[in-house]
Write a structure and sequence with these properties.
It is built from 13 helices and 16 strands. α4 packs parallel to α5 and α7 runs parallel beside α8. By secondary structure, the protein is of the alpha/beta class. The protein binds flavin mononucleotide.
Length: about 425
């Protein structure tokens, strides 16, 4: 079993390099192509994958309030994020009817607050009452079109996100026309902007869904997971869409999370499986209150603790040969605010990291005093000599042999190679 120590242990030379960079980029902008800088200076290749696509680095923006305007996407691209998942749009049919309309409500006040986990650790959560994209679908298509153009210019993968119809426990029909129209329109925009014939797409199962009557029955949730990959994929020619299922934290016991994953891996309808998973969206607390609403989603240390626990179980099951099919690639989300937390997800076999809360933290949380919030977050996430991603990768190289024969530590492949257990 690999146990990460409290603090990374690296030699003086590596530490001096990191301290220099941490101090330097506190004052100066990050290098234009900071992956190249990292490769040359630290012999760390951050290239990895998202939904089967090669991306220049593993850090991305998770879908939400920080990816619903073009200027936000531009800031992500300029700061050098590897990918950006756009705000979730609510699916509709050609006539504009939306069965999940209750999720298309306007943005409300958001509050970033400290939160203490059950184990006593402090972290951050964002409280709000909003849900999905509240503009029209046509506005979303225009937004996506422009975002894709920005992404192309800066080599940042841009990914749409959709909340499609899900039948309630007493409902048997699926609004397939909503799946068809929404998927085909998004793909039309994708093809106008991108040479790549395969569009990545996240299917969001949100935490507020977990707290709704819709998700009251385990059997119904499993039916959603069995059917949605096929429902999305069958709307386009084979291979045209790479479907990522963003798994939610249901209100049931932890073991049920594993049942959900097992269903996605081995029980997909007609064997049409998700191409990748995003694990896992925020927790839902039916008692937590914000702005007069009782029952809201939250994040912080309890979220990462639950996610990592379930991912560890998943890998143990995988190693024990419990699945008939390979576990799809996993994109991590949930309380990723330090390099160490990113590494802990990586040790569970996740190949990239998507963040939301980190990019909303108060300015005083970041040592870097200039640049955008995204740059400040990246500076801390990468170069922090005590807890940054680079110092932890160097730790791994020195103590666990995380390097190829040429001495370079490559993220791609490391996800699979590292022992999948975490301290
Ligand atoms: C204010 C807010 C809005 C969000 N909106 C969406 C959304 O529209 N679609 C989605 O898939 N996830 C949404 N999320 C979830 C995030 O994408 C992310 O997966 C989750 O917050 C866990 O990451 P974090 O701990 O870094 O915040 C939202 C989260 C927050 C805090």
């Amino acid at each position: 079993m690999l146990t990460l120590p409290e603090r990374p242990e690296v030699d003086q030379k590596a530490l001096a390099l990191l301290c220099d960079d941490f101090e330097k980029f506190r004052r100066e902008p990050l290098p234009q192509s900071w992956e190249t800088y990292v490769l040359e200076r630290y012999r760390i290749d951050l290239t990895t994958r998202y939904g089967g696509k090669v991306i220049k680095n593993p850090f991305g923006k998770a879908s939400g309030q920080l990816s619903h305007q073009l200027h936000q996407v531009k800031a992500d691209a300029v700061a050098g994020l590897g990918f950006c998942v756009l705000k979730t749009v609510i699916a509709q049919d050609a006539g504009g009817s939306q069965s999940m309309k209750a999720w298309a409500i306007p943005v409300t006040r958001m509050q970033v607050e400290p939160i203490q986990g059950k184990d006593g650790t402090w972290g951050w959560t964002v409280s709000w009452k909003g849900r999905g994209w509240s503009g029209t679908f046509e506005e979303y298509l225009r937004f996506m079109e422009r975002s894709l153009a920005v992404g192309r210019e800066h080599n940042m993968l841009v990914v749409p996100s959709v909340k499609y119809h899900l039948p309630a426990p007493d409902e048997t029909t699926w609004r397939v026309d909503e799946y068809a129209y929404t998927t085909q329109e998004l793909y039309r925009i994708w093809r106008q902007q991108c040479d790549d014939p395969q569009m990545p797409l996240e299917k969001d199962f949100s935490p507020t869904l977990a707290g709704s009557d819709l998700a009251a029955q385990k059997g119904k949730i499993l039916e959603w997971l069995r059917k949605t990959p096929k429902l999305i994929k069958s709307q386009l020619p084979p291979g045209a869409v790479s479907v990522g299922i963003k798994v939610f934290n249901a209100m049931f016991e932890d073991e049920f999370q594993l049942t959900m994953l097992q269903t996605l891996i081995d029980e997909a309808e007609d064997g049409v499986r998700a191409d990748y998973l995003i694990y896992a969206n925020r927790l839902f607390d039916p008692q937590r209150e914000f702005d007069g609403q009782v029952g809201i989603a939250y994040g912080g240390p309890d979220l990462s603790a639950r996610n990592l626990k379930v991912l560890r179980w998943l890998r143990e099951r995988e190693q024990a040969g419990a699945f008939q099919n390979p576990v799809p690639p996993i994109s991590a989300t949930g309380d990723i605010g330090t390099g160490k937390m990113a590494l802990r997800y990586l040790l569970c076999g996740c190949e990239n990291f998507q963040m939301h809360t980190l990019f909303q933290l108060p300015r005083q949380c970041f040592p870097k005093k200039n640049g955008s919030r995204i740059e400040k977050a990246l500076h801390k996430l990468l170069f922090d000599p005590e807890d940054g991603f680079l110092v932890w990768l160097i730790h791994g190289r020195m103590h666990y042999g995380w390097a190829d024969n040429d001495g370079i530590t490559r993220l791609q492949g490391l996800t699979r190679r590292v022992e999948r257990s975490v301290g």
